[in-house]
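Posted in: Protein Modeling Q&A

I'm a second-year student putting together a small comparison for a lab meeting, and my supervisor asked me to include a predicted structure for NAC domain-containing protein. I've never done this before, so apologies if this is the wrong subforum. The sequence is pasted below exactly as I got it from our records. If anyone can share the structure token output, I'd also love a short note on what stands out.
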Amino acid sequence: MKLPPGFRFHPTDVEIITAYLVPKVLKKPFDTRAVGEVDLNKHEPWELPEMANMGEKEWYFFSQKDRKYPPGIRTNKATTVGYWKATGKDKEIFHPPTMSLIGMKKILVFYKGRAPKGEKTNWIMHEYRLESGKQPTPNLPTDITNAATINAS
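Accepted answer (user: helix_wrangler)
Welcome! Here is the predicted structure, written out as tokens:
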């Protein structure tokens, strides 16, 4: 992708939700050049930079939620060699003009091995999701795509 020198893609939390995730979920047209699509459960974090559309130490992806059990609500965060583990509590994302809750941000850390004895790595994911029933766009599906930012630190 040809971009001007010095170009950096660093959207805010609100921009990720409103300009990328909502149009993706609603299947509306938007510029997808900066955000790739990948199944995060089928790839290890160190494979992701090669799959990204752009980025040097931070990469952006859409990823469909994967259920741990078909009828359940728990999501699968495991890969072949490790797993993503949530840390801290979710951050609420508010739309500035109305201050309405539009989404949530979860921070996950990648561990090699199997829980609970995995070895912590420096790979961090910021997972964004729409907040069901509370976003300004009505009739969003409940099983939606997530946006993720993968960081190598």
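A couple of things worth pointing out for your meeting: The chain has two helices and six strands. The CA atoms of residues 133 and 140 lie 8 Å apart.
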